[in-house]
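Table 4 source record.
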Amino acid sequence: MSKKDFVGHLLTECDVMIRYASGEGKTVPSHIPNTIYQLQNRHEIDDIDGFDLLLEHEVTALTQCHKELSILVYPAKPLTLAIMDKESTSVSWLRFLGPVKLVRHMSLLALFFLISIITLSISPEVNQKTINEGLFNSEGRVLLLNQLFLLCCAGLGATFACLHKSRNFIRLCNYDPKFDSTYWSMVIMGFMAGLMIAELIPTQDITQNATSSIGDFHKPLAALLGGFSADVIYGVLSRLVEVVNQLMGSTDQKTKDKAKIALTRADLAEQLQLQNKDFKDSILQSQKLNQQLLGALSEEFKSPVFNKTKFEASSQDIIRSSAGQSESNINKVSQDKTQPALSE
């Protein structure tokens, strides 16, 4: 954006915000209108001379005034106020439909759908019997007229939702034109959602216990509600997809669980075998130590000179070595037990 466009854009928005704030009864600091008025005169003189040049302190003062005015008119937006001010000076005959071009277009589209519904309902081929036959029990011109009737009902609901949603933004003056495409996408989604819920979802089973008026006209009502609440239909379809994915993935999950259980059992059996082997080794070691102790005792008693001190010392050494080996075996077994047998 060039310097001229930048300065002119800020001056236009500041001018609109000053008039909006004054009209709303808000107190505008006196230095802001004075600064904007002087900069507007300077800008007009520069345009006549053929160049646009503002000093640094003037640009700083302009941006500061714009910031203060934006805070003053909040929640209104400067861009929205500028657009509405520009549209208010237009001479179009559609201006009575709204201050924003999108609202006027949506209003015309809603009127078109309303007139189309009335026109199609006049035809004898669009009635309670033909509209409930559906896609597979009807054909030709009758099917075309009935489907157009349902599409008009869905479009009427979608445009109603868009107008209701944009009304709050217009009222608060914070409408943003960059979201215009989302409103048109809501209309297209309303067409699809209305047709899906009216023809592809068995709503007749839902309304079979209802009153006769609702049961007879359930398809137009379903199309109207589908067009109005396209986001809800999208949420329902997304939830159905998640449920199907869970059902499809449940078989694979069960197979994985069985494999994990089999591996866990194999690891547990291997750990038990190792522990049994360690117990057997410790028992054999104890038996050998006991035999050595008995042999030493028999030799000491058979000797002609029985040295009691030597006998007690040898006995203590054998017992101590036996206790040390037993303790080491027990510690080894306990370490094997503490290992996570069910690790994956």
